């Protein structure tokens, strides 16, 4: 029995017990934590608000809709192809893994990473929220610093996209593509996204946080919250992917890609990115605030800008507040 522990520790203990997907009575959980059955009920409600599907059946207790393979630092490390790794923090619930890395200066070491089971304020591009239910996806951020000023960082998010696709392909995922500038697609639907946040001055050190969200198995209760066609790995693979193994593979692929990006910039990623490009040679609409442009998508240039053939000639679109849609 636990004597005095934080709310988070209590909720983690409840989750670790329920992770086997079997029924556990309120009495059993209460005894483990040294709290009443009513208090267990309140913690379970709080866990449900994080997107966890926990059923409650009178006389039987509580059960998770599916078995949960919780993220574990040691297990992830076993799948990282490096002997001595940079810091790795695995959290249960956090506002945003990007924010966590930003706010913890001791983690401002190349390759330091943070993963979480759930985010309460996950962020996407263009100020959109990133729906982050518990245990359903991977929410991962990595820190890196680059010398030479942020003008050197054109195309960084494209290199990150190639790193993600490489790790997923090595894990047996087929049907992947990349949508400019930051999306990972599976069979034509969005599987994940990349949010690169950079702080730094011109010609000085740039502190970069690469945030990655990959849908693994989205619970039914959360699916209607996503406002575009989406995909998750579980529905496309024969067995539910092992999130710890996948995290290790993604982290390894990211380290390798960022080291390479440091040496060559986008150059080494142009060919693999173009091979994976969702809209290569297709007609698209570019949406830049109130302005729309329609034309053939020619691919990317050496700086990572998207080239569109328009009636007046070829126009290069650089990142920021630009979106691309197939016609
Ligand atoms: C997008 O497609 O709009 C980008 C989504 C990026 C989501 C990830 S999840 C981990 C990291 N933390 C965040 O708050 N956002 C990124």
TrEMBL record:
Domain of life, per lineage: Bacteria
Entry's Gene Ontology molecular function annotations: ATP binding; biotin--[biotin carboxyl-carrier protein] ligase activity; DNA binding
GO cellular component, one term: cytoplasm
Gene Ontology terms: biological process: regulation of DNA-templated transcription
Enzyme class of the recorded protein, top EC level: ligase
E.C. no: 6.3.4.15
Family membership noted in the UniProt record: Belongs to the biotin--protein ligase family.
Protein name, as recorded: Bifunctional ligase/repressor BirA
Species, as recorded: Bowmanella dokdonensis
Lineage: Bacteria, Pseudomonadati, Pseudomonadota, Gammaproteobacteria, Alteromonadales
Gene expressing this chain: birA
